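[Meeting: bench + compute handoff]

Bench side (C.D.) handed over the final construct sequence. Compute side (W.E.) agreed to return the predicted structure before the next meeting so the bench team could plan truncations. Sequence as handed over:
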Amino acid sequence: MAFLQELRSALISQTKAYNALVSTDVTIGLRSEEAKTKALEKQKADLSLLKTRVNGLGEVWSYIQSGTWSTKKDFVQRVIYLTEHDRKTAIQNLGLSGDNHANTLFYRANKILSDKFGSDLIRNILGVNPEQAILQFRSRAGIVLSDTCFVQEAKELLPLPDNNIAFRLSDCVNEAKFLAFYSKAVLSKRFAALDKQKLAYLLFLLTTAESDYSSQQVLLAKIVNGECSANVLTEVLDNPLQKLPNSE
């Protein structure tokens, strides 16, 4: 199946599968608490995998809709319309000469996308390790992970100033610590104490599309996104025989 058609089909089917599993009571017919617990744990793991796939496929589709993969805006709009709508209706509404014209547009678009991301991207996202495929997609798309993982302006996260007389300064200890942590003065001091070459290496891991680094890339992305602690790296250092957690 061609790239665009495979993507749309996978996105629809995985979304349906996720919604169906969410609404399913997997404990029906199970008598023991142990069996119910195992069923719920499996459901949770399956939902997590499906959600990662749906989010990844949605990210690819959003990128395609953005049109940054082609310099011809009209071409992109036609291809997207053809992909999203009934073929016969789309051909008529777009004023195309017929099936051959539509096939030509699809062929050009699918070739551009397959050459850029690989013809196996969608199948890899549907595999057991979709995170790795998504990271490689981002790298090839020019989406720098360090830009998406790190807060560029802490101010964007903050609410508008509000003179709320219900609070005293002593009530806001955690919030004051947050503001201090992200202030330019504190960040500059913390940054000065770091090894710039090590930082450069970590940024390389986050942005590279080289498959040799994929396991490290997945683990580092999890650390940066707060999905696991950086302490796991120290644990691996203390015990070299220990595998990197969830990095395969």
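W.E. noted at the follow-up: The first helix runs from residue 3 to 22. C.D. will use this when planning the next construct.
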